[in-house]
Amino acid sequence: MLSENLAKVQENIRIACKKAGRQESDVTLIAVSKTKPVSMLEEIYREGIREFGENKVQELTEKQTVLPGDIHWHMIGHLQRNKVKYIVGSVSLIHSVDSLRLAQEISSQAVKKQIRQEILVEVNIASEESKFGISKEEAISLVEEIAKLPGIRIRGLMTIAPFVENPEENRIYFQKMRELSVDIARKNIDNVEVDILSMGMTGDYMVAIEEGATMVRVGTGIFGERNYGCVQE
Ligand SMILES: *Cc1c(COP(=O)(O)O)cnc(C)c1O
Fold this sequence. Notes:
The chain contains nine helices and eight strands. By secondary structure, the chain is of the alpha/beta class. Strands 7-6-5-4-3-2-1-8 form an eight-stranded parallel sheet. The protein is globular, with a radius of gyration of 17 Å.
């Protein structure tokens, strides 16, 4: 069943790329496996998926210890500074950096481990009160500050667009993200590459790809609905 879901998502990615005149190889699918059991991740792994996204440090590290070592892990959830030490160096990319203090902690842990951690800066592009991420206006100065830190490399931007029924409503936000990343790239800041734009989830990844997403984060579309019981996301 999961392989059929996955095939459907991959087909949709192909369609969106074609529509936008983009190469399929320019878009990376991240399978968002939060709350899902290891057996499900294994099933998707057998289908060739190597990029997995999790939003909780403990869950990520637990899954990491039992799954194959060639998986690239993506930390996509809000990250507390006291948990940074558990993931620096063992995740490929931290998508959710939204403050200088968090970046400083990532930097100091990376220096300690003598590695360079790749990160994205999370932007709250629709200015939703309920969401983490910095405003579009603050983004450039935050990128400039983070770029000065050792042990850290900015690869681009991430956003979580509003939850909408019609994905077309988010097109404007994806366009704004793309513009922002172009603006930042034009500044030619040392130690900053802006080649990754992480945006688009189950409800809107096709629109996100049309507007320039290079990473899409799909959970429900691959693994089915999440059951949180009474625990909130
Ligand atoms: C849960 C989550 C996703 C995936 O959401 P779906 O709608 O299930 O595809 C993507 N990005 C982030 C940051 C998430 O927390």
